[in-house]
TrEMBL record:
Gene: engB
One of the GO BP terms on file: division septum assembly
Organism for this UniProt entry: Pseudofulvimonas gallinarii
CDD domains: YihA_EngB
Family annotation (InterPro entries): G_ENGB_dom, GTP-bd, GTP-bd_ribosome_bio_YsxC, P-loop_NTPase
Keyword annotations of the record: Cell cycle, Cell division, GTP-binding, Magnesium, Metal-binding, Nucleotide-binding, Septation
Molecular functions per Gene Ontology: GTP binding; metal ion binding
Signal sequence coordinates: none
Similarity section: Belongs to the TRAFAC class TrmE-Era-EngA-EngB-Septin-like GTPase superfamily. EngB GTPase family.
Domain of life: Bacteria
NCBIfam families assigned: GTPase_YsxC
Function of the molecule: Necessary for normal cell division and for the maintenance of normal septation.
Protein name (record): Probable GTP-binding protein EngB
Length: 203
C-alpha cells in the first residue's frame, strides 16, 4: 500500500502561530505531554527517519513545526506540555501560543493526542481533550510506546482509556501505537488520510 504521508517535507518552525504561514487548507496537529512520542509518531507515520527531531530528553520540540504534504495539507508537530523543567516564563508563552493555535487556526481539522500507553489521560491530556471538544474538533488518541507493554497490558490500557473517555462523554477514538514496532500502521495511515483529505474523522 502506498504511504500517503511519505511525501511529507519540513516546511518551517514557528515560534508563534502568526509565523505559521497562511491559514488555508487542512492540517492535523500532534499534541501530548513532553516526551510522549509525538515527533517519533510523525517519523513512523511518514516513514522518514529524522524528519521530526526526537530526543530522550523531554522538551525537544520547542516551536510549532510544520510539515507539508502538498500545498493544501500539513502535519504539525507541537511542543509537549506538562514538562516541569521548562522555565515558567517559557511555559506561559507556550500555553498562550498553543491556546491561540487551538482556538483560532481555521486549517486545524483535528488533533492526534499522543499518550504513553503506560501513563495515559493525565490532567493536561483531559484539558487538551476538553479544549478540542469545545471547538468541535475530532481527536484520535494514540497510546504509544505499546512495545513496552505485554499484549494483555496493551489490551487493558486500551480498554481503560476507552472506558474513561466514555464515562466523561468524550468521543475520541483510541488506538494502540508504537514508533518502533509496526502495529497496524497501514490502518492508521488510511484512517489519518481519510480524516485529513476527505474530512472523515476516526470513529
Ligand atoms: N520504545 C519506544 N520508544 C519511543 C516510542 N516513541 C517514542 N519513543 C522514545 O521516547 C522519547 C521521546 O520521543 P519524542 O518523539 O522525541 O517525544 P515528543 O513527544 O516529541 O517529545 P517533546 O518534543 O519533548 O515534547 C525518545 O527517546 C523516543 O525514542 C515508542 O513507540 N516506543
Ligand atoms: Mg517532539
Amino acid at each position: 500500500m502506498k504511504n500517503p504521508f511519505n511525501r511529507a517535507r519540513f516546511a518551517l518552525s514557528a515560534p508563534r502561530m502568526g509565523d505559521m504561514g497562511p491559514d488555508v487548507g487542512r492540517e492535523l496537529a500532534f499534541v501530548g505531554r513532553s516526551n510522549a512520542g509525538k515527533s517519533s509518531a510523525i517519523n513512523a507515520l511518514t516513514n522518514i527517519g529524522g524528519l521530526a527531531r526526537t530526543s530522550r530528553t523531554p522538551g525537544r520540540t520547542q516551536q510549532l513545526v510544520v510539515f507539508t504534504l502538498d500545498d493544501e495539507h500539513r502535519l504539525v508537530d507541537l511542543p509537549g506540555y506538562g514538562y516541569a523543567q521548562v522555565p515558567m516564563a517559557v511555559r506561559e508563552h507556550w500555553g498562550q501560543e498553543m491556546e491561540r493555535y487551538f482556538q483560532h487556526r481555521g486549517a486545524l481539522v483535528g488533533l492526534v493526542l499522543i499518550m504513553d500507553s503506560r501513563h495515559p489521560l493525565k490532567d493536561s491530556d483531559w484539558q487538551m481533550l476538553e479544549a478540542c471538544g469545545q471547538r468541535g474538533l475530532p481527536a484520535l488518541c494514540l497510546l504509544t510506546k505499546a512495545d513496552k507493554l505485554s499484549r494483555s497490558e496493551q489490551q487493558s490500557s486500551l480498554r481503560q482509556v476507552r472506558a474513561a473517555l466514555a464515562e466523561h462523554g468524550q468521543r475520541a477514538a483510541v488506538r494502540l501505537f508504537s514508533a518502533t514496532r509496526p502495529m497496524d500502521i497501514d490502518g492508521l495511515r488510511a484512517e489519518l488520510a481519510a480524516w485529513l483529505y476527505e474530512g472523515e474523522p476516526p470513529a
